[in-house]
Structure formats: C-alpha cells, structure tokens
Amino acid sequence: MAIEFSERIARIPVYPAAGGYAERAPRVKLASNESPWPPLPAVIDAIHAALPSLNRYPDPTNSLLRERLTERYGVPVSRIAIGNGSCDILLAAGEALLEPGAELVYAWPSFSVYPHLSAASGARAVTVPLDADARHDLPAMLREITAATRIAIVCNPNNPTSTALPLPDIADFIAQVPDHVCVIVDEAYCEFNLIEDPDSSIELLEHHPNLVLLRTFSKVYGLCGLRVGFALCGSDALPRAVDQVRQPFFCNAVAQTAAVEALAHQDAVTERVTRTVAERISVDERLRALGLEPADSQANFCWFSLGESDPELTGAKEAEVMRGLAERGVLVRGGGALGQKGALRVTYGTPEENAIFLDALAESL
Ligand SMILES: Cc1ncc(COP(=O)(O)O)c(C=O)c1O
Q1: SS3 assignment for 182-224
Q2: Among candidates 19, 35, 14, 36, which has minimal Cα distance to 325?
Q3: pLDDT tens-digit map of 291-322
Q4: Which residue from 130, 218, 223, 246 has its CB within 8 A of the most atoms of ligand 1, so it is best to mutate?
Q5: The whole model's pTM is what?
C-alpha cells in the first residue's frame, strides 16, 4: 500500500525550478536571476572565518545581522525578520496568516512561489492580471480586497516581467488597503530599480503597521547559494509570527556571517548595479534590433514575448527557441512555466555571457 499524504500535498504546485542544475553544466546560465559575479573577497574571507565554529548552532535570534540592518535602514530590530532566503519568510507568512476561508491577492504573472501560499494553507488565491505594460494593476487589485483578505502581495520590480511601479502608486495602494490585511511588497530586485531610490519605500513603514518589505541577499549581493533574506516590517507582529511557525535555527551561521559582511560593502553594491544596468541597456537594444520588444526592465533580467500571436503556436515557439538556446549551451526560463506562454525571461549576465546568449538567440529565432 502506498503512503497516504495529506490533501494539501496534492494542491501544492511543484516549484518550476530551472533545468540544468543536475545536467552537464551549461555554458551560460541566465535562468534564475542570479548575480553573474561571485561573492566579494571580503565576504569569502568572512565565510572561511566562520567555518571552525560550525560545531555550534547558529544564533537563533540572528542578532548581529538584525542590528546591522537596523543601522543601515533605521528600522528597529524587533521589526526585522530574517529568513532562510526571503522565500522562507514568504512561506512562513502564509502559514501564519492564511487558512481555509481566508484570501490572498496578488498579480499574475508574478513570482512563482506565491501560489504555494494558498495551496499550502487552503486559502483562496485571487490573481489579478497585469496591465498591458506587464505592470501591476493596483486599482484592480484593490477591488479584489475583501473582509476575508489576509495578504496582498505587490512584487516590485515584478518577477517575471521585470517592470516596476513608481512608489507613489504603491503608497496610494497601501493607504487604501484595510489595516487587517498584511501588504507584502516583495523587493527582491529593488536595488536594480532606477525609477526610485531603493530605500524610499522604508519611510512607508512608519505609517503602515501592516506593511512588510521583503528583501534578499540572493540577488545584488550574490549570496543565493547560502539562502538569506530579510523583511523590514511596520510592526513587530509579523517577525514574531513567522518565528512561531518555523524551526528555531532557520538561518545558518555561515549565511548570517556572510550577510553581515556583505552589508558593509555598499560601494560594491552600487558598482554591481551600474554594471548590470549597462548590460540591461545594451542587451535590450540588441533585442530590439532582433525585432523583439523587451518590457521596461527595472531588474537584473529581461522579459519579452517571442512574437507568436497564434495562441496555438505560442508554446511551440517558446519550446523551439528554448531548445535552440540549450543546444548552444544557454539556459533561460520559458514564460510557460512562469504564467505566460510564448515569452522568455533572461537574466542579464556578464558582457561575455550576454554576447553568447544574443548570438544564440539570433540563430534560434
Ligand atoms: C520576486 C522574488 N521574491 C523572492 C525571491 C526569493 O529569493 P530568496 O529566497 O533567494 O531570497 C525571488 C527569487 O527569485 C524572487 O524573484
């Protein structure tokens, strides 16, 4: 007889992980919005220095990291949650806030982990289509908020479409959301957003105890392999609740040490953003020269439709181009797995990687 699993296991979608992890290493990996550059030498030194103490459990309160985040952002330690990646905080927030009968509102296509929150809890997911420019339609999202809504998520810049909304639009949205709803603004890519100062949203926390800004060391800091993220919150309620539903040692010692060190090198962050934005401009220009129309990216990746208008053929076109790229050693994400068939999401890599991708794309189209 087979093992009998809970009902929710049948509901939870399997995360659409990028291929290529187990296979022969691709030449160019542009599928997971990672940093193409390794952790900084000072961060690697800090990691080495942490290794001899690994016979001890990590600090379960993540105190040094939270103190450093307080120094940097001015948000009190009690209003900062740490996670084993920001996904960990997201899933824990779902566990803490959702249950059957509750509702969760988010845009679609957006980050592929959001559907897990409703599936895992039995809450109802209300998805709101993006507008014609692949941006969140905040007025439409507002109309979906009811007495049953517990979480509203705004992903800014949005994964997978790369677009961002101006902060005043988001501030207006938050001001109109009732206080019982936890508003999570997922800012995993905020450092790459040139529309705003990445830190301007922090001021909103002073006016909205129900606001959570979700951030990560996985992207611009280049530490996704270690798994560490954080949430800056408008009150201490969410940090307390997410700690209640998780195991005590959710953030490992090496990750804590590396994040503390990485935070001290903001010049390097600025320099990496500058390099990424230069690649963003040049890759998008080449895409347009190929007749494609990339969305207005404010992130470290681009998003474009392959231009097939026949709905029957969009998936086939995506598969064909993905295959062409894979044969040339280039790994990207197809839109089908991310909510929109016939599109591609491609991380900006180094100039050399981008040149290989663009040549492979031109040959595959
Ligand atoms: C929008 C968004 N939020 C959160 C994450 C999670 O990042 P991590 O769990 O590595 O912090 C990602 C990762 O791709 C993302 O795209």
Answers
A1: EEEEECCCHHHCCCCCCCHHHHHHHCCCCEEEEEECCCCCCCC
A2: 19
A3: 999 999 999 999 999 987 777 788 899 999 99
A4: 218
A5: 0.95
